[in-house]
Amino acid sequence: MADLIDALVGITPGSRLDDLRSRRPVARSDAQATYDGLVAAPADLERAGALERAAIAWWVAALSGADGLAEHHADLLGALDPAVLAALVAALPAAVTRGPYGSYPAGPLSVEDEAGPRWLAPDELRAVAGERLAAALEHAHLLTYHPRDADPGALRALLDAGWSVDGIVTISQLVAFTHFQLRVVAGLAVLKES
Amino acid sequence: MNAAVIEHRGLRRPDAFTQAQLDWVPWLRPKATGDLTEDDYAALTDRSRVASPYFRLLVRDPVVLGARTRADNDIFYNVNAGLPRTERELVAAAASRSNGCVYCASVHSRLAARLSDRRQDVQRLLDEGIGAAQDPRWTAVVDAAAALTATPPRFGPVHVSALRAQGFDDQAIVDVVQSAAFFAWANRLMLSLGEPAVPEAG
């Protein structure tokens, strides 16, 4: 499969950025392998379905202002279920904020606690996406903006919504990896123009 | 049993950022050692990781763990030009400090302090955060790491200029970008699948 990070940054063979990336060849190939394993060609669709994976990936990219990546995922998601894409697009403006914020366990670090929203999927989105995907989107919002607020209760909410332990590991990787991917794209795009 | 969240009552939780060795305990049940397949061992890449509850939890998705770990090793340990190992660990520590991952910050601040022999400078990063005073070279690195850690990332041409002004070439800047980006990944897993603990004395 073509390298998605290269495509999004606009890295062409033989260019300066191509040469720089080629000196970290495994990081390059395994970033793509991770993406393939999570979104493009996952082996196990029972733990997390293709629609769920595309929706979570789009949500994280869109929440993070990663326009190129979000557009790529919108194509995937729109082909699978345009109604879910439309419901997510409608929910986005009320969900967007900035991170990282969050609280520390009570103690000396509490002076650094920074308040921010805990997003809950609106009813219109729940109706279209279903409870299981809605729970994953809420978790993705938590991990995107205020990961230090994560607690056992957040995982219990996923289990209660029907996610398996294997499924939680996979969607956690999907959210976390997408944050890596969008930052490599953002950073290399700046370097390319500098 | 399998699908229960694990609560660690009475756990000794660290209440500050530290360079000291911490444990990490999972909130979901890792795969049992006896259930590991050859594919799982391949994904763990290093057999000693079988002892880690973190890696035995992540091995529930072996394809992704394997790719993650190979990328990790290339970003942090491929020393064919680019950013010195010390500054890669500094980036990891700064990103972890910014996200609030006490466990990740402990591991990578310890490594940064050992490689640089600048324990106090590293401790100031932990105590005061990413705005703590550092020399110009470390300031450029920490600022870039923090800008990449923000959501949305606010890394821009000013960070590239500041890094170049301190003598970092473009290969080194790629390493800054990938090291910080990798901790946007690692911090989220460590923060959301378990928590740090102070090891029992002795």
Q: Please bin the fraction of helical residues of chain A.
A: 55-70%
* Discrete helix count of chain B: 9
How is the biggest beta sheet of chain B arranged?
2 strands, antiparallel
Counting helices, strands and paired strands, the structural category of chain B is mainly alpha
Number of strands of chain A: 0
CA-atom Rg of chain B in angstroms: 18 Å
Using the 3D structure, state the CATH architecture of the largest domain in chain B: Up-down Bundle
Mean pLDDT of chain B: 96
The fraction of residues assigned to DSSP E strands of chain A is: under 5%
Output the keywords.
heterodimer, A: 194 residues, mainly alpha, 9 helices, 0% strand, B: 202 residues, AhpD-like, 2 domains, two-stranded antiparallel sheet, globular
Give an overview in words:
The complex is a heterodimer of chains A (194) and B (202). Helices cover 68% and strands 0% of the residues of chain A. Chain A has 194 residues and is mainly α. Chain A has one domain (4-193). In chain A, helix 7 (123-145) runs antiparallel to helix 8 and helix 7 crosses helix 9. Chain A is globular and about 50 Å long. The model of chain A has no long low-confidence stretch (mean pLDDT 97). Chain B is mainly alpha-helical and 202 residues long. Chain B has two domains: 23-76 and 193-197, no CATH class; 81-190, AhpD-like (Up-down Bundle). Helices cover 57% and strands 4% of the residues of chain B. Chain B is built from nine helices and two strands, in the order E-H-H-H-H-H-H-H-H-H-E. Chain B has helices spanning 38-44, 53-58, 62-77, 85-99, 102-116, 119-128, 136-149, 157-165, 170-192; strands spanning 23-26, 194-197. Chain B has a two-stranded antiparallel ribbon. In chain B, helix 4 crosses helix 7 (136-149) and helix 7 packs across helix 9 (170-192). The mean pLDDT of chain B is 96. At the A-B interface, helix 2, helix 3, helix 7, helix 8 and helix 9 of A face helix 3, helix 8 and helix 9 of B.
